[in-house]
């Protein structure tokens, strides 16, 4: 079955010279991808990247969601609701990272971020390594807690 596939034809028209010209002619923002990526990675649940991109309404919504989660988490009567709200903020941060690295997040004026072609690959690789590392650490700590508890 695989022998029937014509990969040359499949990939021949995926990125043409016209596509390169259209991409090169798009306006570029003064906002830089590495800065937005760093903010999204380190302060993602707080909406810092959205403030940097000039979209304070989304940043405030994200900040309020995370703050509500933390406040409810600290009040023992609503800990489950607090965990849920903060988990939603964290999931939103991961989605933002994916969208940022895919080039889907733009600045306030809809312009693509400067440095995307240069930095998207290294930032994506580092993001995957960090997320997998956090997952492994979480599994190890969860396993230690289950054994000792």
Could you describe the 3D structure shown?
This protein has one domain (28-148). The chain has seven helices and two strands, in the order ααβααααβα. It has 149 residues and is mainly α. Helix 3 runs parallel beside helix 7 (116-148). A two-stranded parallel ribbon has the order 1-2.
Can you give me a brief rundown of this structure?
The protein has 149 residues and is mostly helical. It has helices at 7-12, 17-25, 33-43, 48-52, 56-74, 79-102, 116-148; strands at residues 28-32, 112-114. Helix 3 runs antiparallel to helix 6 (79-102) and helix 3 (33-43) packs parallel to helix 7 (116-148).
Q: Strands, helices and their partners?
A:
Layout (H helix, E strand, L loop, with lengths): L6 H6 L4 H9 L2 E5 H11 L4 H5 L3 H19 L4 H24 L9 E3 L1 H33 L1
Parallel strand pairs: 1-2
Helix pairs in contact: 3-6, 3-7, 5-6, 6-7
Question: Which characteristics define this entry?
Answer:
2 strands; two-stranded parallel sheet; 72% helix; 5% strand; mainly alpha; 7 helices; 149 residues
């Amino acid at each position: 079955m695989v022998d029937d596939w014509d990969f040359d034809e499949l990939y021949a028209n995926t990125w043409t010279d016209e596509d390169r010209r259209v991409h090169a002619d798009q306006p570029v923002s003064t906002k830089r991808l590495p800065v937005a990526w760093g903010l999204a990675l380190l302060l993602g649940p707080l909406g810092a990247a959205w403030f940097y991109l000039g979209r304070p309404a989304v940043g405030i919504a994200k900040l309020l969601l995370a703050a509500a989660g933390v406040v409810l988490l600290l009040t023992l009567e609503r800990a489950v609701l607090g965990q849920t709200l903060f988990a939603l903020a964290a999931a939103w941060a991961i989605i933002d990272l994916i969208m940022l690295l895919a080039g889907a997040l733009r600045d306030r004026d809809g312009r693509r971020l400067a440095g995307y072609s240069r930095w998207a690959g290294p930032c994506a690789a580092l993001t995957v390594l960090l997320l997998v590392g956090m997952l492994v650490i979480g599994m190890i700590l969860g396993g230690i807690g289950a054994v000792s508890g």
